[in-house]
């Protein structure tokens, strides 16, 4: 009775609180019974009166649980599974995920579902999140910081006080570079023994033309015993076994992603007069 206060005529119930069931926004009513006693010191009489206390519960949306881990793939890997998932924690049926946003998506990445908003974000329905993949443009590599946002609605059917909340989780899509092949146009050389012979310049073109790849080594192979190599300015090229590495200073550009060996000369072994067809091996990296 410590919670009941009054002046002898009117009374109130003070400081009493009620907590609704977890995750429920359903309104409910509590019953209240008040018992009064009339006593003259010898006899007494009591009467019980009943009433109700209406409790209106406003909805409060809970954050979604999002599963979004970092993804690593190799350049030109095709469709990459993003393994994204989102779920509501409220199981009474009043909450639902109404929309999914994915942001930080570069122009070079296309998602398998949803709408590209043109500003680096994509809008999806909850169903489209399942099995979502990303396809990266050819010859593109890098680290892309992205995020997924789930929008939750807690619908309040008996009072109309709907509530919403958005939950965001970051993840990273890493695309590792992979060097592509080189297209080679063979060169040739023809001349007299004991003389330096100019090599018809072999050329080679990078398959990846986005600027991320470069040549870092060129090796001539199949050099016969006793043959010598030099550049036209007299720079000697060391021959080891049947191969020689060409100085990078002799590698010149002939156009976009195309190169050649400038000024290469070869001297055939003594007592040998024939066409020489050494091979080229090119090393490039990203």
UniProtKB/TrEMBL annotation:
Location of region: Disordered: 1-24
Highest taxon, organism lineage: Bacteria
Protein name in the entry: T1SS secreted agglutinin RTX
Originating organism: Magnetococcus massalia (strain MO-1)
């Amino acid at each position: 009775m410590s919670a009941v206060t009054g002046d002898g005529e009117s009374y109130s119930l003070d400081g009493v609180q009620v907590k609704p069931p977890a995750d429920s926004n359903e309104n409910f009513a509590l019953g209240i019974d008040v018992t009064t006693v009339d006593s003259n010191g010898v006899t007494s009489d009591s009467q019980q009166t009943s009433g109700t206390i209406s409790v209106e519960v406003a909805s409060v949306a809970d954050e979604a649980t999002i599963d979004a881990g970092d993804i690593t793939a190799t350049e030109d890997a095709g469709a990459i599974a993003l393994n994204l998932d989102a779920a509501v924690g409220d199981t009474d049926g009043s909450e639902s995920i109404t929309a999914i946003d994915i942001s930080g998506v570069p122009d070079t990445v296309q998602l398998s579902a949803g709408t590209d908003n043109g500003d680096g974000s994509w809008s999806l329905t909850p169903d489209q999140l399942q099995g979502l993949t990303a396809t990266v443009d050819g010859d593109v590599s890098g680290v892309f910081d992205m995020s997924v946002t789930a929008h939750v609605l807690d619908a309040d059917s008996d009072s109309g006080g709907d509530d919403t909340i958005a939950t965001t989780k970051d993840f990273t899509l890493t695309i590792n570079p992979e060097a592509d092949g080189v297209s080679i146009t063979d060169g040739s050389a023809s001349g007299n023994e004991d003389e330096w012979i100019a090599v018809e310049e072999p050329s080679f073109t990078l398959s990846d033309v986005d600027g991320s790849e470069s040549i870092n080594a060129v090796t001539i192979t199949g050099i016969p015993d006793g043959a010598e190599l030099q550049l036209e300015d007299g720079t000697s090229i060391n021959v080891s076994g049947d191969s020689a590495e060409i100085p990078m200073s002799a590698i010149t550009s002939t156009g976009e992603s195309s190169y050649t060996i400038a000024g290469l000369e070869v001297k055939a072994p003594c007592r040998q007069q024939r066409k020489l067809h050494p091979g080229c091996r090119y090393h490039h990296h990203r």
